[in-house]
Amino acid sequence: MSTVKFEYVLSNQFKAENDDDDNVVKDGYEVFCEGFLYSRNKKNKLSNRWVCKHPKCSASITISHNCQVTNVSKESHKIVSPGNSVDPKDVIIRHKRRSKTRPKLPESLRKTIIDGIYTKTTNRIDQFLIFKSKNNKKLVFCSKTGLEIRSKS
């Protein structure tokens, strides 16, 4: 089983605190294996079970916490052939573009609307957009903490 090559890639839910060696359950990661992207389905004391991200595919892979493939489902990928594999970096970029929370690209600079979550920091409380001109030609982004540090320098 350990001859199956795979790679952990960052998911859209990745957070900086997930990036350490103690993260054996791989929170914030997805698995890229043989041209397919898998998300974690189950975790336990010894391993994680990952399933294909395509909604109509039931292929899965189980990887132990010491990074050994312990099981590959007998169900093959019926959606895409493995010969059409892509680079993991391209998968991440395409996956992020499909995000439903992101607004569509505006037709022009004047029609650009920056509001809601895009004006706040990741804690969704502090203001991040601190200045916006009438025609959106000047935008200033900075957190309160960053502004305080900048004013002291």
TrEMBL record:
Name used for this protein in its record: FLYWCH-type domain-containing protein
Gene source species: Brachionus calyciflorus
